[in-house]
Structures are given as C-alpha cells and as structure tokens.
Amino acid sequence: MKTCPKCGKKIEREFDFCPYCGKSLDIKNNWGILGKNDNLFEKKEEVFGFGGGILNKMIGNAMKVLEKELQKGIKEPQIVPKTKVQLYINGKKINIGTKPKKIIKRTAKKQIKEIPSTYFSKESSKKFSNLPREEPKTNVRRLSDRIIYDIEMPEVKSVENISIIRLENSIEIKAIGKNKAYYKVIKIGLPILDYYLSKGKLILELGMKN
Predict the structure, then answer these.
(1) What pTM was estimated for this model as a whole?
(2) Cα angle: 95, vertex 100, 102; to 5 degrees
(3) When comparing pLDDT for 188 and 91, which is higher?
C-alpha cells in the first residue's frame, strides 16, 4: 500500500493515480486521468462502485446535466409556426372557423293570370232579355289553391252562349238556354282563372289570393 500525497488515502501500489482525488502518482509517465490501469476498474469494483471515486463523480455530474436538459425540454413548450389559410368560394373570401352565411334564394310570387271578361253580342243580349230568367243551383268546392263553382245549366250547349263579367267585388254570370236564361251573381272578389261546360254544368275556377 502507498499513501496519496494529496489526500492522504491508502492506495494499492499498482495504481498510478489516486482513485479518490485523481492525483497522478506516476511522475515519470504522463498517462492522463486513467493511466495504464484502465483494466483495473473491473478488478476493483469495491473502489469504483457507486459509493465513491472520480469516475462516479464524473458520471453523476453528466447525469445531472442530462436530467436538467430533459426537464428543460419538457417545461418549454414547442413553438409551432402559425400558418395562415385562406378560403375563397365563388371569388368571396370566407373566414376559417366561422360558418358561411346561408344564402336564401327569394323566389318571386307566382302571379295569377286572370282571364278577361266575356260579353254578349247585341243579338245575344236581346235574346237573353226575351227569355224567362232562372237562378241556377250552385255547388262550391275548395282545393288547395283555388275555389271551384259547379253551376247547373242543363239547357246551355256552348260557352258562346255564356257571359262572365268581372265586377269590382263580384262576378256576374249570364247564360242563354233553349227555353230559359240563367242569371247569377257571385259576391266574391277572387280572380277568374278558367271556365268550361261539362255535363250540363258551368265549371268556374277562381284563384286563391296569397
């Protein structure tokens, strides 16, 4: 055994440096911190265990530095570069993250086309005046978008013998039969869409106002 001149620890003679303080004991040869006794670390586990020694201090310091770097990397949030994305629809810029405004298509209201009034000729007007008048029986039906009048005129054979005149708030109906004239006033201000004869009845269609 020999004594380290620096720290005073007892050291085996085959060592060229002090395992406690690192003092070189070989003055003639400069072997560095490990020297030529590198293989002695496997034989002297009791000296170089985790309980002491310069190597343990070096490893411990290195582990502390590594641990600090790892903790630093965990604490510091990663900075993700911001990307600016723009969306265009039909040439208009749409902001990302906001719902595009719903486009409401407004459809124009369907205009009701009313047929023009029909009048008797002078000859038909004279004939109508000479016949006895009768108010025809009438049935009314209502559909989703119109009102249907079924007016019984069994003696009328052609629409040419019918006059339908649209007044301000009513509809005047005249018809010429074989032996009688039919006369009726419908007190309603709806537009006249169509009319026709069917099985001895005048079918009158009126439009519903929106």
Answers:
(1) 0.47
(2) 160
(3) 188
